[in-house]
Structure formats: structure tokens, C-alpha cells
Amino acid sequence: MALDPQPTDMIRDPFDEQKWLLEASNVETILDVGAHIGQTCERYHSLFPGAHIYSFEPFLQTFEQLKANVSKFENATPIPYAVAKTEGVREFYSNSASYTNSLFAAREEAALWVEPFEQIKNVGKTQVSTTTLDIFCHQYNIEQIDILKLDIQGGELEAFQGAVGLLERQAIQLIYTETMFVPVYAGQPLFHDLSAFLAKYGYGLYNLYDLEYGNNAQLKWGNCIFLCPPLLSNTLTRVALNKA
After folding, report:
1. pTM for this structure?
2. Which domains does the chain have, with CATH numbers?
3. Parallel, antiparallel, or unpaired: how do β-strands 82-83 and 88-95 relate?
């Protein structure tokens, strides 16, 4: 039976989109990087109940909440590390709203776009352990990541720089990542930086989601999905078959 093509005339849910994109795949491994307290882990578990989900959260207080929240899932493993371009120990900025914590300090100019700015105000610094995706997958004998989700407040490019081995092998099927179009954190990449880096390994943008705009109508941030070449090609084939 032919698979239905995705509708193009409606606002899409990025998680339902991932389910559709991987419909023909046996999703076994999901890396939830920047898991916070486990909200995304729960959503992925409902969509892919057979997948093992590794949830990364480096901030101790938040990690304890994450560990408690995902303990009900046998196939979820909380990981107390930040993902970066190198393995080691890094300074970590804790902010008023824990979901804005980052390896990068917030810029003063962020007040132009972050409302209320108080949520990104720094309240402390701590040391966290970092790993890379290449090292982690080697340690855990992971040959392929079916979904790599990133929500790490400006650390996305560093995560990709630490995953060159995986990207060269196109061993990550689908990347679902937050992306920014304005500079909120010092040294953070913008969307074009991420897109250009992934393009070197053949990964293509599939779509943008949950876009948010400033008072001046400037695009601020959102989420996006990148696909490895075989999966991107497969979506074209599926649509073509349904049109035939």
C-alpha cells in the first residue's frame, strides 16, 4: 500500500513529522541532548516505544529531576554530561530559567529578543563534564543514531564538531535541533553556520518549525530537521510514488 505524502498546506508538528519520516525505519536509538527534566524523552517514548533513549543533562539539580522523571521508562538512560566538541570539563552558566542554561554566556544584546530577559539572567557558574557524540557512541557501542535531538542553547555546532566520525559515515539518520537566527549567547552559531557545516557531510534541511519572531518581525529562533542523504532521497521517492 502506498504511503500518504505529508500535507504541505498546514502547520506541522515536528514530532509527528519525525514519525512520518522514519516510518519505514526500525528506530532503535534516540539521543536527547539537552533533555532538561525529560519532557522530550516522554514524547519520544510515546512515538517510538521500542527505541532506547539516551537523555543528556549536565546541570546537577536538573539532572536529578530528569533521572526521577524518566525512571518509569525501562529503555531510557539519563546521562549527566554536556555534549561538546571535546571531552573534558567546562564552565557551565546557570540562569534564572534552567532551560536557558548553557556552556555559553548570554549576551547583553539578547535583551533585544529574549522577553522577559530575566529568564536568561545568569545566577551562577559551575563545572560540568563534557563528552562528544563520537566518543559516547564508541563507549556505548552505538553504530547508528536514528534521531539526534539537540536543544543546548547555542552549543549545536560544537556538538556536530564532536560528531564528525558519525557524520562522515552518515550514521545519524535524522537531526532535530533548535536553531537561532539572532545572537543570544556569546560565540553561538546561527542557522547558516549549522546548515553549512552539515552540508559538508551531505545532510540537507527538511523543514523549519515553531518559528518565533521579535517585535520588529525579525525571525529569532525555531527548530529544524536535517536528514541524511538516503532518508532525504527516500522522502522524494515516497511522494513521487503517491503521485504516480
Report:
1. 0.92
2. 15-243 (3.40.50.150)
3. unpaired
